[in-house]
Amino acid sequence: MAITFYDLCGRDAKRFSPYGWRTRMALAHKGLDYDLELVKFTEKDKLAFSGQKLVPVIVDGDRTVNDSWAIAEYLEDSYPDRPSLFGSPEGRGMAKAINGFVNTTIQPLLAPLIIADILEHVDPADLGYFDESRRQRFGRPLAEVQADRDAKVDGFRKSLEPYRIVVKDRAFVGGDGPTYADYVLFGTLQWARCTSAYGLVTADDPIHSWFERLLDLHDGLGRSEPAA
Amino acid sequence: MAITFYDLCGRDAKRFSPYGWRTRMALAHKGLDYDLELVKFTEKDKLAFSGQKLVPVIVDGDRTVNDSWAIAEYLEDSYPDRPSLFGSPEGRGMAKAINGFVNTTIQPLLAPLIIADILEHVDPADLGYFDESRRQRFGRPLAEVQADRDAKVDGFRKSLEPYRIVVKDRAFVGGDGPTYADYVLFGTLQWARCTSAYGLVTADDPIHSWFERLLDLHDGLGRSEPAA
After folding, report:
1. Which of A104, A188, A222, B123 could form an S-S bond across to A215 if both were Cys, CB 3.0 to 4.6 Å?
2. What Gene3D superfamilies is this protein classified in (chains A, B) (predicted)?
């Protein structure tokens, strides 16, 4: 019985959720097929069966799992014969900590740099909801939040240092092959790539080359989503 | 031929370097004996042979290695038959990223909370150097830096969240046994435990129970250094 994957979509079915991308890469890593259900910001009633309102959600037989990290653990446990997402039991806990660090340190520094650009890629039906909810979160109009990004981008770039020191001398965080620790930051940067043309990372940054490698993985899955 | 381990010491040979503790735990994890050379802040000439001025440094036969992360990798590669510090090749890269995250996010939030307390534990010969160099780093007197710590401690506690979500339902970051990913944050918190009585972590915080487990490891090695 196939998996059903509920992912966020924007205008023209564009998919840019950072958490959705983590799950999308994890499913590809495991080589799992799925039926896709696209959900707009204002269609969260489609997720009511999951008991909460956030994508990603997967349904696998009689199991419903939400939260990208919980989905990664579920896939690892349910499909142990497929390529491992964590490499080892030790890697699972470490990847969870890295997932937490990216969510709490890198992603909050990225959001203000692209938040107004994202508006261009939100489905017209969601525009009012998105603009108002994010305006409340940031406490001012999104164009204003983003206006001084040239002054803030260095702080964002510095926040990537823990990944940079790792991937400057190996292909992926875990070594020769990708693991979920790669997909975590990949999802965050892919969110930006799909919604904003702003130059977040310089071409000579090891993060840039690493991200290009991630875009190539799984038959160019990441690259298949057009850049903004 | 035994390893020589150069570690920082303060008043009464107290050892509180966060990086020194990472190396000390790594050496214990590998079950390696060593000769100890204590180095005060103003005795950095003792390290001249290593081509730089910072502890920890180890000398193993004809190899000299400085920087706690480089030492961890050296020990893992040179003593592959001893218990692994990383659990797997994937875990090595992930632990390196975690080492980077702790250094750049948690440690800078901790330093201002304890920096004046540390003065009490610095060797009298080092006091002038320590006070002046740290005053320059923080841009004001250390007592002043520390004065508003009650307002800042919540930010520090929040920064521990990536570890907290992992150790709230497992004994160590990597699962049942400790890895270098544990020793990284342990070193940082042990630095505080040895130099300050300030209540950084509440008793009901999963980080507290995890830290107690770390203090018990390797025959109570961490606990053998008196708390401030």
Report:
1. A222
2. 1.20.1050.10, Glutaredoxin
Could you tell me the pLDDT band of residue A98, with boundaries at 50, 70 and 90? very high
Question: Are B170 and A105 a contacting pair at CB < 8 A?
Answer: no
Q: Measured between CB atoms, does B169 come within 8 Å of chain A?
A: no
Report, in angstroms and rounded to the nearest whole number, the Rg of chain B calculated over CA atoms: 17
| Nearest CA-CA partner of B180 in B6, B23, B14 | B23
Does B175 contact A91 at a Cβ distance shorter than 8 Å?
A: no
Q: Which of B87, B94, B176 sits opposite A98 (nearest CB)?
A: B94
A179 and B92 within 8 Å at the Cβ level: the answer is no
- Note whether B37 and B94 are same-domain residues: no
- pLDDT tens profile B89-120: 999 999 999 999 999 999 999 999 999 999 99
At A64, which CATH number? Answer: 3.40.30.10
A22-60 pLDDT per residue, tens: 999 999 999 999 999 999 999 999 999 999 999 999 999
A179 and B104 in contact by Cβ < 8 A? no
The pLDDT value given to residue A1: 63
State the pLDDT at residue A78. Answer: 98
Shortest distance between the Cα of A42 and any Cα of chain B, in A, equals 30
Question: What's the domain count of chain A?
Answer: 2
Identify whether residues A104 and A20 lie together within a single domain: no
Q: Please classify residue A138 by burial: count the beta carbons closer than 10 Å to its beta carbon, then call 0-12 exposed, 13-18 middle and 19+ buried.
A: middle
CA distance B59 to chain A (A): 24
